[in-house]
């Protein structure tokens, strides 16, 4: 039985590792956080085996929960909530009513439409459709006789699959995270792959367990120890070097952001500060500009720092924010900068397989108006 977490660095090949390490003759279930991740996995499997192995299943996590932990146990779900005749009508991406809402005077007040989690309407809308956002919470809530739904489902999964792999593990939060951990305790073989330092950079799932406890952030060492306590073996060696980033870029990231990352040396590239002739860089379409936000508001080819996650580019120009104005100086300190902002910059700095140009906020502001498509950026 294998229960392991492979902790990776940016560009180390998380998806590559999952897809090339599986045995195509075994029954594999590969889970990803987004549909884009699923597409990447499909492409990587085809690259590895010429086709997607017949016995390998790929799914987004929420689809997996819906089809393997909710629908098969709907009668038990109805009984658990005292609704024996419950018959669902599908699933909705609409968010459930929040517990508290803002009143007309700006104060947070209880929401009359909110239903407590011990009632079935907490998990379904008026049309008997499951809220996608509460699927994991529902699975964790229900008992099937003398056992939990999760334990029963995990035993069923062991009958149909030899190994479960979960890509981009750092993107899962709260109930989704708890569900993964509880499933893993019963699954025979499960491998989680992710990069701790890429957590909290997406547009959603940026807060809560396992990276925040209350208002206190969970650091890398504590995160690793918590996983060990849950029974996972920790692999920090297999994916400790970046296949994408050049040695000079990795050294810069390690030194300035205090994030351990090394390079396999597959590519050549330097960190280049843009001091003069910034227009030549901004107008060069072969260099992708990475800005903190509002990328669609500029005339040049650009992507937001966080939206670039998962991308590989030939060369990039990272436009820094005011907080990183002194990044080049030896005295630069990360003190006072949020982990989320640091992680977003880490993502931006590690997208290029070649050179990484850096442009200070002050340099960019001196020419910004020439590239703005709208006012107020």
Distance between the amino and carboxyl termini = 53 Å
What is the C-level CATH assignment of the largest domain? Alpha Beta
Largest sheet: 6 strands, parallel
Write the CATH fold name of the largest domain.
Answer: Rossmann fold
CATH superfamily of the largest domain: P-loop containing nucleotide triphosphate hydrolases
Number of helices: 12
Q: What Rg, in angstroms, do the CA atoms define?
A: 23 Å
The percent range for helix content is 25-40%
Taken as a percent bin, the fraction of beta residues is 15-25%
Textual characterization of the structure:
- The chain is built from twelve helices and 21 strands.
- The longest helix has 15 residues, at 35-49.
- α1 packs across α2 and α3 (61-70) runs parallel beside α5 (135-141).
- By secondary structure, it is an alpha/beta fold.
- The radius of gyration is 23 Å and the shape is globular.
- The model has no long low-confidence stretch (mean pLDDT 93).
- The N and C termini lie far apart (53 Å).
- The protein has helices spanning 14-21, 35-49, 61-70, 74-80, 135-141, 149-160, 174-186, 220-229, 247-257, 278-282, 339-349, 361-367, and strands spanning 2-7, 28-32, 56-60, 91-92, 100-102, 108-110, 130-131, 143-144, 147-148, 163-166, 189-194, 212-213, 216-217, 233-235, 241-242, 262-263, 271-273, 288-291, 302-304, 316-319, 356-359.
- It folds into two domains: 1-239, P-loop containing nucleotide triphosphate hydrolases (Rossmann fold, 3-Layer(aba) Sandwich), CATH 3.40.50.300; 241-370, P-loop containing nucleotide triphosphate hydrolases (Rossmann fold), CATH 3.40.50.300.
- Pfam families: AAA_19 (PF13245).
- It comes from Bifidobacterium catenulatum.
């Amino acid at each position: 039985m294998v229960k392991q977490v492979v902790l990776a660095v940016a560009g180390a090949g998380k998806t590559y590792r999952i897809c090339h390490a599986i045995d195509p003759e075994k029954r594999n279930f590969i889970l990803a956080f987004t549909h884009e991740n699923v597409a990447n996995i499909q492409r990587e499997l085809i690259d590895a085996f010429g086709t997607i192995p017949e016995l390998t299943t790929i799914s987004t996590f929420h689809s997996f929960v819906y089809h393997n932990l909710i629908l098969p146990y709907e009668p038990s779900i109805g009984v658990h909530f005292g609704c024996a005749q419950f018959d669902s009508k599908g699933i909705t991406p609409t968010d459930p009513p929040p517990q508290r809402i803002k009143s007309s005077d700006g104060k947070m007040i209880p929401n009359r439409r909110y239903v407590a989690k011990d009632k079935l309407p907490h998990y379904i809308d008026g049309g008997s459709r499951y809220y996608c956002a509460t699927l994991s919470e529902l699975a964790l809530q229900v008992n099937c006789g003398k056992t939990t739904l999760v334990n029963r489902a995990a035993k069923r999964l062991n009958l149909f699959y030899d190994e479960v792999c979960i890509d981009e593990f750092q993107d899962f939060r709260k109930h989704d995270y708890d569900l993964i951990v509880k499933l893993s305790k019963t699954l025979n073989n499960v491998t989680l792959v992710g990069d701790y330092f890429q957590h909290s950079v997406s547009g959603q799932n940026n807060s809560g367990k396992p990276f925040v406890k209350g208002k206190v952030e969970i650091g890398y060492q504590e995160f690793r120890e918590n996983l060990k306590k849950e029974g996972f073996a920790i692999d920090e060696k297999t994916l400790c070097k970046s296949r994408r980033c050049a040695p000079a870029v990795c050294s810069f990231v390690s030194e300035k952001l205090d994030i351990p990352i090394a390079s396999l040396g597959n590519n050549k590239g330097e960190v280049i500060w843009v001091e003069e002739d910034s227009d030549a860089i901004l107008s060069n379409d072969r260099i992708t500009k990475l800005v903190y936000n509002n990328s669609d508001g500029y005339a040049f080819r650009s992507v937001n720092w966080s939206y670039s996650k998962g991308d590989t580019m030939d060369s990039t120009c990272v436009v820094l924010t005011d907080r990183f104005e002194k990044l080049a100086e030896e005295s630069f300190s990360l003190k006072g900068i949020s982990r989320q902002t640091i992680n977003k910059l880490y993502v931006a700095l590690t997208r290029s397989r070649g050179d990484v140009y850096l442009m200070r906020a002050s340099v960019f502001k001196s020419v910004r108006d020439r590239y703005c498509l709208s006012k107020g950026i």
